[in-house]
Amino acid sequence: MSPWSFCSRPRSRRMLLNFGMPEFMHPAGNCQPGSVLKKHFGKTCEAALIILQKYLLREWSRTFAAVSAVMLVVMFGMTIGELLNDIAKGRVPPGLLGEMLLLNMPDVLNMILPLGVFVAVIWVLGRFHRDQEMTVMRASGFNWQMMLRPLFNLLLPVAVIVFVIGVFVAPSAAQMAQQKLEKAFRTAAEWGLQTGQFHELQNGNVILYVEAVEKDGRTLRNIFIQQRDAEREQIWIAETGYYWLDADNGVRYLTLENGQITEGGQETLDFRIVQFSRNDLRLPEPEYKSSAPDIDSRPSMDLIFSSLPQEAAEIQWRISPAIGIIVLGLLAMPLSHSAPKEGRGGRVVLGVFAYTIYANVLYMDRSWIASGIVPPSLGLWWIHLLTLVVAFYWLRLQGKLVS
After folding, report:
1. H-assigned helices in 104-169
2. Of 64, 208, 263, 309, which has the fewest beta carbons less than 10 angstroms from its beta carbon?
3. Whether the predicted pLDDT of 6 surpasses 70
4. Contact assessment for residue 264 and residue 272, using Cβ atoms and an 8 Å cutoff
């Protein structure tokens, strides 16, 4: 039985019009207030409309789960690729790959959930238009205003989840990631040094080999280091060594004991050998993605009442994905309107294009706020408001055209 069969089954002779046509097929015969069907079968029509709303919500939820799962797999692979690139460049210790991947998940969810909702609403409504299910639903009195209830039943829970992730979970995860990186640079074990293996740092400009690591995770045995630049090359050999961090400036050092340095030109025979009992080797600085102190890891409660443009831009940026879910969900309704013979993915492509414009304008406006071009009071709010106005105007215009 179809979801709209309650409103499409003639139950008495009164439902027949002068030409013998069932009233549900007549433009006046629907479940809208004041119609004949509504007068005689009010409870039945209300039940049918509730079934239609549940049907929409079920289809949206299933599509949203499927789209989000696919995008999560894609973003998961991209995140792994970025982390492996950071490991190759010495930005992230190899031993922290799994933890850093997990700590990046809040940012990934903040990115894919708004787009997942947007695509799901467009996909389902586009299919209804293409298969003419929407025509039957409208003939039964199911207008766009009645879609708002199932739509918000989908949007509001997802928006709350994204709000919690963006405002609370993501900053905490960024702070934990920064702390783990700082801690990892102090110990060889967490840095991922494995005995008997060569480790490349700084795109191969630094090669490190350690024969053994003591149980304290800090003391190294029989160390080999090769450093090279455009003109010179150095070979460091030492019996023991250990990491330490300068608390004043945060610079990392590797103290080597009882060793020698062999230095020479790559294209000349100018070599020299230096013996030493102790030598502090300054290690290359990790190329963090964000400068310290990192505003991404600041608690949201510290930014809410801040008067600084950078902090105002950051807190508005954290809230924007949750607002964007509501805005994009409403914008998806008029965007999904398609002709019966239109292709399956045409409206989705148009929706992704609209999402790209929306997201890029938000990103540019964020930089304008941080640089003082746009006042924080105007902030990102005008973009959300303007998109909402466009969505409601478009919906009302389409409602008049199909009424």
Report:
1. 105-130, 133-139, 144-164
2. 263
3. no
4. yes
Say what the pTM is.
0.73
From residue 395, how far is each of 100, 147, 246, 390, 392 by CA, in Å?
A: 43, 11, 62, 9, 5
Secondary structure string (H, E, C) spanning 68-120:
HHHHHHHHHHHHHHHHHHHHHCCCCCHHHHHHHHHHCHHHHHHHHHHHHHHHH
- pLDDT at 89 (0 to 100): 66
* Most confident residue range from 121-125, 182-186, 203-207: 121-125
- Checking if the pLDDT of 13 tops 50, the result is no
Please, which residues have CB within 8 angstroms of residue 332's CB and are 6 or more apart in sequence?
117, 118, 121, 122, 125, 351
Apex 298 CA angle, 112 and 170, nearest 5: 25
Higher pLDDT, 131 or 258: 258
Sequence-ordered list of residues with C-beta below 8 angstroms from that of 125, at least 6 positions apart, any chain: 134, 332, 333, 336, 337
Question: Tokens at residue 249, please?
Answer: 């400036």
Site of tokens 């013996």: 275
C-alpha angle 301-382-316 in degrees, rounded to nearest 5: 15
What the block records as the tokens of 315 is 């807190």
Three-state secondary structure call for residue 22? strand
- Strand, helix or coil for residue 335: helix
Over residues 307-332, mean pLDDT: 95
